Amino acid sequence: MARMKLDNYAVADAPRLGLRGWARWIWRQITSMRVALILLLLLALASIPGSILPQYPSNATAANEFVASYGWWGRALDAMGFLDVFGSAWFTAIYILLFASLIGCILPRIGVYWRNLRTPLSPAPSRLDRYEDKDEAETDDARLALDTAAAGLRDQRVLGIAIPSRIVAITGWRVRVDERDTRDGGRELALSASNESLREAGNLLFHLSLVGILASMAVGGLLTYRGQAIIVEGGSFTNAVVDYDSFSSGNLFDEDELDPFTLTLDELDATFADDGMPEDFTAHVTFQEPGDDAFSTTIQVNRPLQVDGGKIYLQGNGYAPDITVTDSDGNVAFSDAVPFLPQDGVYTSTGVVKVPDVTSGDQLGFVATLLPSATESDGELVSVHPDLLNPVLIVRGYTGDLGLDTGVPQNVYVLDESQLSPMRDEDDAVWTVALSPGESVELPDGLGTFTWNDTSRYAAFDLRTDPTLPWLLAFAIGALVGLAGSLFAPRRRLWLVAPLASEGVEGVTDDGTPVTVVRAATMAPAHDAGAAEQMRRVLDAATGRSRRVEKE
Amino acid sequence: MSPQLLSIVTLWAAAALYAVAMVAWSIRLSRVADERVRARAGDDAVVAEAPAREKVSVAAGAAAPVDDAAVAAMASGATSFVVDDGEDDAPPRSAADRALGAARAAMYLGIVLHAVGLTARFFEADHVPWSNMYGYTITGSFTAVAVFAFVQSRRDISYLGAAVTGFSTLTLGLAMTVLYSAADGLRPALQSFWLVIHVSIAIISTGVFVVAFAATVLQLLQYERADGEREVTGGALKRVGTKARNVVVRAAQRARWFEAVPSAQKLETVAFRLNAVGFVLWTFTVMAGAIWAEHAWGRYWGWDPKEIWSFVIWVLYAAYLHARTTSGWLGRRSAWISVWAFAALIANFTIVNLFFQGLHTYAS
Ligand code: HEM
């Protein structure tokens, strides 16, 4: 309960608001605190479905499948936003309300805090002997003793550098010293000190930083862009929207801002352990900005390349078999390295070759599977390792219309088979061949040839910029520091009282100087065992007392 | 001996020592309870018999403020001192002290061997052993005991000893039998210094939360014990619930060792201080994770299942901290929120690792 009293500004503020204002203030505080609590619980609860149900933003395929396979249940959940929890109206409502409550709670507390800082501390109580933690020591100069104590408390240093006193009022002790009349007609010096400000400052910093984090995230969402570019070894990419394989950006992102650099993938190193586990991926790249010298560098999974317009991440890699197709007239209709998508941990990869530009006749299409380390298992070819130890390419061909002229953008990894028919061999079975690198094969019906020249690797790079990242980092640090202050900063009050002049003469030392007794007391939460020790240290320093530290 | 074998042997030995420590902590608890009951009953007799001795012990208790349990132990120490014929100069040792000595010895030896086991695993794998559930579990069981030992060295929380060492015996045993996997290389996605930062702090904060949770359970038991049995009424579900609760209450009321457990209020303070430390560390864990995600995946937050659960845990502990300052919520209700938060923490290590697909899946 003592904790509530010290923490709750409603109570700390009591004397100046009057009874009605006080009641209203408490009521508001309590209600908003309760609302905040309930909103926090709701926020936790509302997040959980996002981890259980497939979510559109992270896995659209799974979400679509879910809707398709669960009938009206799936559709209902979808309609209610359960398949995009973190973009749903109810999730947004909860956190907007929470932050509204947070801001509504924080602003008045900043005002209260500010006024409290400017209000003088209350003077030391007239009687210290009613406190549990108390001590006393003798001195021959009460004034010097209390001045020493006050200076010592006000002196706060970081790495040996003294902190200005205005800041110490927040981060350290606030001190006041009064000279006042005692009850029995004498005079005394009374020092009153408190270091309770830091805790509330930490709390305010923490909550404000949370607002800052949310604001940065919101602004970041508007200013960011993210694109993916797939580059085959030897190939390059120019930073323009048309060159990306996929691209998305926030509403306020200006595409003209893309810095037109070029990135060339010189080589992609991929090493795997004997059991196929990946050990290292390194992309050796050359980066060039227009008008600047090109430079070579590397990009690794945890080491993105920081460039002017953002960061470049190595996000994936795979094989790109180099394929040449000649048509029935013997002309080269296609010759390129085609990125294949890895389907499993051993890089069994599938890809599609679309050959629209044949000299005459139907368009050609191929679906191929690359087995990097093929072996036969139960009469089937499977791959057992991601390295190209025994590469085999299994190819099927199609003829007909690839459907490229409809104007609808096509997925380059999928063949639209609606207007295609599979090639067939003499026995009218579906034509399938297994090729080795360098091998060429005649297509059925004199349609041409298919040649697998060799295999390169490709890298998938994510490019992203988010100008709010430094802000986020700053607010995150602010939140952490504020939180630590809010939870761990001590809350102590400390008082020293010493009688002055003749009243204080309680004895005389050997050489005849008068002796004064300085009394000290401290108040702190029950678990704060260091408060009494600090009080004794302050008293020691003030009076020059040397104490045998007993530890029994 | 190969690092692998050394690691396995020492970890098993640590698990066994924790089991011994758990028994010793339990004995310690019941002895302290016995002596407290006896001290209460026999106070007058002792004072009458040897007033001087009793004064000595009380003065000692006052000079160094200590926990109730320790005071009780001290008072009972005086009792046995009185009973001794006083010929040898060795300090008096009550049954509770002997149990404490045994518990400490077994626990510290267990910690040392556990540390050796973790280090050997580090050399076996050639990287920090935090790339799969086995690694997390052997480290998490270590930090739980280590956190307990650290706090215990500064203030007496020996009433939590049995629960914490029991927890570590269980989790370490589970790790060795069910989760064990031979060390292998570190995937590129994990090759980052943030692995060391992010995961180590996550595991340390988990250790802190474990100890806090033990205190919270005792705290809740204290409330229920004080409330006594409840009338069984209402629907079937509620009746079963009330009956189960009554069974627990009866057991707690009958358990003599409960005499050595401090008051609910005191337990709440202990749990709060630990939860506060755990919360700051968890906040750091989530932030470090976001920084790492930004480095590795190009986004700092993506609502991956692991991220969602880390967030849920964080929000629940934040709710707990708010509940403590909301009128009517401090005590029983806030304690329950921290129980839910802890349940989410455990779910994050178990269910989420095992059943949810996400970018963190390599962890399992
Ligand atoms: C995004 C939502 C919020 C989060 C994550 C959050 C988090 C926290 C945390 C972790 C603490 C613990 C620090 C401490 O105990 O000193 C705290 C304390 C506090 N929060 Fe919040 N908070 C949120 C919203 C709010 C709101 C909406 C209010 C206004 C009612 C509020 C008022 C307080 C107060 C008064 C304390 C101090 C409690 C004390 O006396 O210790 N918070 N908050």
Write structural notes for this entry.
The complex is a heterodimer of chains A (552) and B (364). By secondary structure, chain A is of the alpha+beta class. Helices cover 33% and strands 32% of the residues of chain A. Chain A is built from 13 helices and 27 strands. In chain A, a hairpin with a 6-residue loop joins strand 23 and strand 24. Chain A is elongated. Chain A starts with a helix and ends in a 9-residue tail after the last helix. The N terminus of chain A is likely disordered. Helices cover 77% and strands 0% of the residues of chain B. Chain B is globular and about 65 Å long. The interface between A and B is large, with 58 and 56 residues. Protoporphyrin IX containing FE sits at the interface of chains A and B.
Overall body shape of chain A: elongated
What's the alpha carbon Rg of chain B, rounded to whole Å?
Answer: 23 Å
Distance between the termini of chain B: 28 Å
Calculate Rg of chain A over CA atoms: 38 Å
Specify the biggest β-sheet of chain B: none
Number of helices of chain B: 12
Total beta strands of chain B: 0
Averaged pLDDT of chain B, please?
80
Biggest β-sheet of chain A: count, sense, barrel?
A: 7 strands, antiparallel
**Structural shape of chain B:** globular
Bound molecules: protoporphyrin IX containing FE
| Order of SSEs of chain B | HHHHHHHHHHHH
Percent range for helical residues of chain A?
Answer: 25-40%
Helical stretch count of chain A?
A: 13
**Greatest interface and its residue counts?**
A-B, 58 and 56 residues
Distance between the termini of chain A: 32 Å
Average predicted local confidence, pLDDT of chain A: 86
Seen as an oligomer or otherwise, the chain set is: heterodimer
- Which blocks of ≥5 consecutive residues of chain B have pLDDT under 50? 46-88
- Strand residues, percent of chain A: 25-35%
